[in-house]
Amino acid sequence: MEKVIRIDSVGQFSAMNNNETLHPLVNIVDLSKADERQNRKSNYGFYAVFLKEVKCGDLQYGCNYYDYEEGTLVFVGPGQVIGVENNGELYQPKGTALVFHQDLIKGTSLGRNIGEYNFFSYEVHEALHLSESERRLIYDCYSKIRRELQSNIDKHSKTLIVSNIELLLNYCVRFYDRQFITRENVNKGILHKFEELLNGYFSSERPKEIGLPSVAYCAEQLNLSPNYFGDLIKKETGKSAQEYIQMKVMDIAKEKVFDVSKTVSEIAYELDYRYPQHFSRSFKQHVGVSPNEYRLLN
């Protein structure tokens, strides 16, 4: 297996790409200054936002390859591995990368809220494709951060740099919302596959054998990262993926309650409820009446 290169610091990443380290915890790196190199896999110890400027296939998460288009943003969080197997060919990196260490944002609002930017755990094939106007906004944020880094560091520097990083990430939240809308047909297809997946799951013995399907399980079956899958379902249905699964469980439960040959306890066990009273309580919360009352109503 090919060795994964660990890149632990902003300074190490900057030096590897022939860029001056303007700050030990944050930098804007011009990737076109890097020497030609072969494909590789790297494990990053910091956050990175790559704005790619060429069409090239040098990125991969897990088993998923991604040929990104010009003007695509790719997000990497600490501990993630990105890259492809070395095929012996050389390529010239191009684009711009914002890299920042988590120590930079400690004690700031961004540090407290960084976990809400789910796209840092999206997979590469879930990257953000920018319009021309969106790309200009991202470049503007990069430019403001670079100018601040090139100025004399003072007591305001960290606040201004972190504020501009936060602004950039908030723009990305907006742009992802736009992308979810413009890819509505694709998303509807995923929602349909999700529905089919749940139907197949609950018509099998798997609920009794391995329990209810988790969000992570469903995302894996649909070749999506859990966070991207969860965000997509939320945008399409207004419910979290977990709420959607629970809603599906209740739909199945209502069908099973019609079968008077089964007791409520038997139905509860079939749906992986360890205690029948928990099933009855959940059923009443979602449906408005108890399972036995629902039988009488129908």
TrEMBL record:
Gene Ontology molecular-function annotations: DNA-binding transcription factor activity; sequence-specific DNA binding
Source species, domain of life: Bacteria
InterPro entries, A to Z: Homeodomain-like_sf, HTH_AraC, Tscrpt_reg_AraC-type_HTH
Assigned keywords, A-Z: DNA-binding, Transcription, Transcription regulation
Every HTH araC/xylS-type domain range: 196-297
This protein's record includes keyword Cell division: no
Keyword flag Transcription regulation: yes
Name of the protein in question: Transcriptional regulator
Native source species: Pedobacter antarcticus 4BY
